[in-house]
């Protein structure tokens, strides 16, 4: 019985299949898809790393700002915070450069945590200086970057890159709201520090400010992003602790020496039910 041509020669068959695959338009299309997915994955990983740096530096700025309640002159701390936030903005400029020409929502999950932390640090600094809430427009106005010109080996500057010399980054409304929701926790800690230092005016200012923020989030209700409704419970807890401190100061403030107010406040907040919100 004669063997058919090509039978029993796996190498020849594999070469034939490889030649057919290399010329197949389907295989060529999938190679293009592979390159696009690899490029997108690499960009996503770079954005995650930059966002992590933004988160770390923003947290350090927040820790620095908490010292303003324990020093007589806070100008030096505020100036140092400005320097740190300038460095954070340079990191956000790298995010803007990575997103140039891309759909921001394809990579939003990669950097949203860092942007929320930056909004929290910026709003905390703004409140300490102006006793008000920074707006989304003010935050976006600070995220405008000048793209540097590239200089070749001969020392001459190259032509401006496509898209112009100005690069901007726009914080989304959801990231702004989530950052403001996290701000309430820092204001609650600021209230504790103020009471410990004998400052009985700041807690009442913070209580009124937090109540306004809570009322604003209540107007959003269930119509906003899902993450906002999750953080609303934490916001209510922070407001409840601050209002409880104000109650203790108003009712028993004249009976307790200033250096003992922090102990009384801590004992009262320790008995709060962690699952109980503000009605």
Task: Give a quick rundown of the structure.
67% of the residues lie in helices and 2% in strands. With 279 residues, it is mainly α. A two-stranded antiparallel ribbon has the order 1-2.
Strand order of the largest sheet: 1-2
Q: For the CA atoms, what is the radius of gyration? A: 28 Å
Shape: elongated
- Measure the end-to-end span: 91 Å
Biggest sheet overview: 2 strands, antiparallel
Helical residue percent band: 55-70%
Number of strands: 2
- Work out the helix count: 9
Question: How are helices and strands ordered from N to C?
Answer: HHHHHEEHHHH
- Strand % is under 5%
Pick out the low-confidence regions. Answer: 271-279
Mean pLDDT metric: 82
Computed structural class: mainly alpha
Tell me what the structure shows:
This protein has 9 helices and 2 strands, in the order αααααββαααα. The chain has helices spanning 10-22, 25-65, 75-98, 108-130, 136-141, 173-196, 202-220, 226-252, 261-270; strands at residues 144-146, 166-168. A two-stranded antiparallel sheet has the order 1-2. α7 packs antiparallel against α8 (226-252).
């Amino acid at each position: 019985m004669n063997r058919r041509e090509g039978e029993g020669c796996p190498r020849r068959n594999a070469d034939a299949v490889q030649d057919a695959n290399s010329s197949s338009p389907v295989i060529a299309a999938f190679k293009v898809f592979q390159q696009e997915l690899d490029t997108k994955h690499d960009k996503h990983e770079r954005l995650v790393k930059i966002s992590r740096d933004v988160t770390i530096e923003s947290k350090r700025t927040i820790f620095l700002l908490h010292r303003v309640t324990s020093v007589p002159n806070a100008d030096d701390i505020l100036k140092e915070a400005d320097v740190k936030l300038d460095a954070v903005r340079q990191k956000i400029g790298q995010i803007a450069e990575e997103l140039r020409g891309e759909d921001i929502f394809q990579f939003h999950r990669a950097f949203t945590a860092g942007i929320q932390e930056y909004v929290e640090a910026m709003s905390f600094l703004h409140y300490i200086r102006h006793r008000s809430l920074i707006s989304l427009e003010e935050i976006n106005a600070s995220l405008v970057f000048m793209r540097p010109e590239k200089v070749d080996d001969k020392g001459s500057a190259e032509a401006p890159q496509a898209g112009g010399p100005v690069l901007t980054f726009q914080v989304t409304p959801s990231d702004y709201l989530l950052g403001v929701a996290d701000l309430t926790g820092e204001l609650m800690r600021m209230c504790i520090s103020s009471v410990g230092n004998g400052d009985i005016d700041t807690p009442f200012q913070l209580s009124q400010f937090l109540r306004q923020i809570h009322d604003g989030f209540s107007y959003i209700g269930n119509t906003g992003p899902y993450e906002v409704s999750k953080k609303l419970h934490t916001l209510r807890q922070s407001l409840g602790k601050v209002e409880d401190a104000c109650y203790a100061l108003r009712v028993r403030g004249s009976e307790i020496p200033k250096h003992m107010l922090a102990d009384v406040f801590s004992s009262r907040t320790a008995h709060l039910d962690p699952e109980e919100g503000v009605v």
